[in-house]
Structures are given as C-alpha cells and as structure tokens.
Amino acid sequence: MRASDKAYAALRDDIIEWRLAPGTVLTEVEQSERLGISRTPLREALGRLSAEGLTAAGGRGVVVTDISLEDIDELFELRETLEGRAAALAAERGDAATFEQLRRELLHAPELIGGAEPALQAYYDLVGRLDAAIDAAISNAYLAQAMRSLRVHLVRVRRLAADDAERLTAAAAEHAAIAEAIAAGKPRLAEAATTVHLHRSLSHVKATHVPHQKEHHG
User: Fold this and answer.
1) What is the pLDDT of residue 161?
2) Backbone phi, psi, residue 36, to 5°
3) 131 exposure class (CB count in 10 Å sphere: 0-12, 13-18, 19+)
4) pLDDT higher than threshold 60 for residue 210
5) How far apart are CA 16 and CA 9, in angstroms?
6) Is residue 120's pLDDT more than 50?
7) DSSP code at position 90
8) For a 10 Å CB count at each end of the chain, is N or C smaller?
9) How far apart are CA 96 and CA 200, in angstroms?
10) CA angle 158, 215, 83 (to 5 degrees)
11) How many Å from the N-terminal Cα to the C-terminal Cα in the chain?
12) Could you report the per-residue pLDDT of 145-165, keeping only the tens digit for each?
C-alpha cells in the first residue's frame, strides 16, 4: 500500500470513529510524525479527505469538519434518493437466493444486538453485507460509487447516536423487510421499505443527539 493510501485510510478511520473530533487541526508536522510518513503523501491524503468533505481548510490549517443538523437532513435526502432507487434496481436485477439468505440472517440479528461489542460489530457487518449485495446487484458502477461516498458520512452520523438496542432491533427488522422485497422481485415494495427505514433512522438520530452547529462547508 502506498504511503498516501495508508495515511488516507488511517485518518479516515480516525475521523469516522470520532477519534479525531470535529475542529481538530491536522498539522502536517504532527500527523506525518504520528503516521510515520513524509509530508508529500500526507498532503495527498488530506486532499482526498477534503474532497470527501471530512476535512476543510481553516484559519489554522486543515481541520476536521463538523456535522450539523442541516448536514444530516441533506445527507438523508440524498440517501433516500440513491438507496431507494438502488433497492428497486436490486429487486429487478438481483439474485433472489442471495437476498433471501440475508433476510433469514437479519431476522436473527436481535441475538447479536443485545450482546457485547464483538456481537454488535457482527450485526454491523451483516448490514454491510446487505449494502454490498445491493451494490453488486444493481450493476451500475456510478450509483454504487455515489452510495459508497455517502456511507462515509453516514458512519459518522451513526456514531453520533448511541447503540440503542431497541432502535437497532427495529432497524434489523426494517433491513429484513428490504431484503425480503428484493428477494421477491418487487421494486416498488423494496423502495418503500427503504424509505420507511431511512425515515425512522433519521428520526432516531435527531432525537438522540443534537450535533454542534457549524458554518456550512460546501
């Protein structure tokens, strides 16, 4: 892996997981020493993060961006458009057996949600597999790339809300409904199930955490 790729992956994970909090200044000297790379690949990594909206130029240098309520609303507007369409396409083009298997696993997800961190991560991995299956089924590289870029920010948003077992259990059932509709080859139902899930997810995030307001960063 190239030094710039390594730096990008490390910084991206730190930002997404809130180890680097919003407003943190990412100085070249400090970060190059921390990551064990020279400044040139670090600058390339910071440029990629800026293109994704995870960092921005500030008065003191490159800073980690914040997430405002306005950002969350806008993200979910885009998410509904992209993921609703993707679910419909997956229902038209996807392999029914793949999504039927995911549906069965998601129905057992509550057994993971109430457990310790490794079990909870297994639930998130399962949801990730559903996302990946939809990406593969739609056979549209541009739409899949757009959703992958969006998910970077959605992981940050998810970390804002506590891992609430009741909400996660409900979300698992919603994901199972999406998988069921795709497996049944019903595009309109798959899109509707996705819309319901996103509406409930947005309501939960906004009810459980009010992030700091910030200046719009574009």
Assistant:
1) 67
2) 70, 40
3) middle
4) no
5) 10
6) yes
7) H
8) C
9) 26
10) 35
11) 31
12) 999 889 888 888 877 766 688
Which tokens hold the place of 40?
């040139």
Cα–Cα distance between 71 and 61 in angstroms, integer?
22
DSSP string for residues in 74-94: HHHHHHHHHHHHHHHHHHHHS
pLDDT, position 69: 83
Please give the helix or strand (H or E) that residue 64 lies within, else none.
Answer: strand 61-64
List Cβ neighbours of 131 (8 Å cut-off, separation of 6 or more).
147, 151
Considering only the top CATH level, what class is 69-208? mainly alpha
Cα angle for residues 148, 205, 161 (degrees, 5° grid): 85
Q: Please report, for the chain, the start and end positions of each structural domain, with discontinuous segments joined by +.
A: 3-64, 69-208
pLDDT digits 0-9 by tens, 61-112: 899 998 888 889 999 999 999 999 999 999 999 999 999 999 999 999 988 8
DSSP 216: -
For the chain, the residue count is: 218
Place 215 in a pLDDT band, splitting at 50, 70 and 90.
very low
Dihedral over Cα of 182, 187, 189, 195: its sign = positive
Of the listed ranges 3-12, 132-141, 173-182, the least confidently predicted one is 3-12
Domain covering 3-64 assigned CATH 1.20.1740.10 in the classification:
no
Task: Compute the mean pLDDT over every residue in the chain, rounded to the nearest whole number.
Answer: 89
Name residue, tokens 């991995």: 125
Which H or E element spans position 8?
A: helix 3-16
